[in-house]
Design brief:
mainly alpha; 12 helices; single chain; 78% helix; two-stranded antiparallel sheet
Amino acid sequence: MSNSQNFTSSIIFLLTGVPGLEAFHTWISIPFCFLYATALSGNSLILFVITTQPSLHEPMYYFLSMLSTTDLGLSISTLVTMLGIFWFNAREINFNACLSQMFFIQLFTVMESSVLLAMAFDRFVAISNPLRYATILTHYRIAQIGVAIVIRGTLVQAPLVVLLKRLSYCRSHVLLHSYCFHPDVMKLSCTDTRINSAVGLTALITTAGVDSVFIVLSYVLIIRTVLSIASPEERRKAFSTCVSHIGAVAVFYIPLISLSFVHRFGKGAPPYVHTLIANAYLLIPPVMNPIIYSVKTKQIRKAVLKVLHSRVTKT
């Protein structure tokens, strides 16, 4: 068993850039660099603004800071391997590093789904029970939710890593993406992977699947509450507080659904289509979330402009 584990640890996988467009990797890296710079700077700015502006020390913005943290983690998890391939053709990654990257990508993905659910609950409480909003979502309770999100993601994803380590890999070691993706690694095994597939499907259903159902349920209850408000102006005002969150949910789930459809029904599509959609799936939420909240949330927009103005004035 020990010899088998040592052999597995010595395996080197080869990551893939954009199949068929290898000659253009340097040019392809330009938009990806722009997207990474936007994601890292945007989410860092959101975190800085929420931390430094006392007016934003409220439940809604604490959850937004959690979202920005998960987006930063998701971006950093793929940054090195993706740009390494585009700039230096650095395709090799050892087995343990591959499993570590896979774990953190999926951990932050599950955490993002969980945070979006928590934000839906936040909007439901704020609209349906505004007088008790601050007493229901106390700082302590928000901290508990944050810890629960991390624990949930870790407990769901850890078995996937453990189960991959028990497999033997005697086929091609070429992965289909520029990062380690659980189905890719699993397909390279020459041993039975039915347990891995079942656990992976269960993890997906119990996280993104369950979260999406509860998010929809939350909005059904929110819409029912909003429609019961007599004043049209108050109805509009109440629902406008949900616009940013709806946008964040859309940019998370639409790429996820698109990737699932392409993998299932896009067998005849060029390989680069699969790769670009898979990369977009991980990059679009971290890029778009800071933009959505900065544009659609007045308090965030004012705080960001205030911070940027103060920096410009000092220079």
